[in-house]
Specification:
- It is globular, with a radius of gyration of 24 Å.
- Among the domains are: about 80 residues, no CATH class; about 110 residues, no CATH class.
- The protein is mostly helical.
- Helix 4 crosses helix 8, helix 10 crosses helix 12 and helix 13 packs across helix 16.
Length: about 300
Amino acid sequence: MVLDAMNDMTPLSGIGFHSVLRVRMLHSQVRIRLLRSEKYDTESHGVPINQEDLLATLGAFSVACIWGMQRMGIYMSADDREAYILAWKHIGYYMGIQPDLLKRFYADYHSAEKHLCSSITHLLEPQLGEASGMLPLRLLNGISNRPLYGHSIQYHAELSRLLIGDELADIFQLPRGNLRTRMAVWSSLTLMRWELWFGRFYRAGWESERIRLMKEFVDWLVMWQVGKRRAFERTTFRYKVEVIEDRKAGLADGNFEAEQGEDDGNVRVQVDRVYINDLKRRYYRVIVVEPISLLGGLLCGAGWTMWYLSRV
């Protein structure tokens, strides 16, 4: 849903608009089932997926992301922060959050930041000197060993320690990673910072091209690896082809690869391998080969200059 919402939230036609409504319907179904269940105690736990839960989740996808980028040393202007909060305020409206709550708590970045801090204190109840249960660890476990990168829970815990600090991480009982895990986190953050720095000073248009390719590449990976076939079927990306013929006819074209056992009536989804291969070539050429070639050229030039000066 997040990638869809960041792509297009045009009412009625946008892929993000459709995705947000699907999640809202999912929330409603879960809420109804829990309220009808005899095992769920509303007096102790309140209404499931209530307005506070939705607002806290909205803050996790908006304010928390800005906090994370700031802790990782990524610059974000005040205008960009306000625009990002406004975008998620718009998403929150379609998620079913009451407009008066959005107007009060998401009037600007400062208001949203204060609300998320109060939500964390109330929902997670971190207390200095006392362990705060296993909820944060369970959340990290839910995203561990999953695409895109398949990082372990130790990696996510170590990254969380970097973002929230050791004191709060100890309260949440987050495990410490080994030296290899810490080096992996450090390397990932260093590479990300270097790409952002490179884009600011390199040729005009490189940064916008990198963002466009990264967005399309990540969209494809998420849909294909995480969403798998069902999520992939509802997309309208250029690399997707819907085939009406039977399976044998579809497999006859060598440029496409069919998925096994996932038919929606007589419509099946295939991947345009020609387009995907071209996307990969453009991705590695712009984001990997071009910076490395430039850096290698500069290092060779500097080395040759030092060698020449030493001989003069």
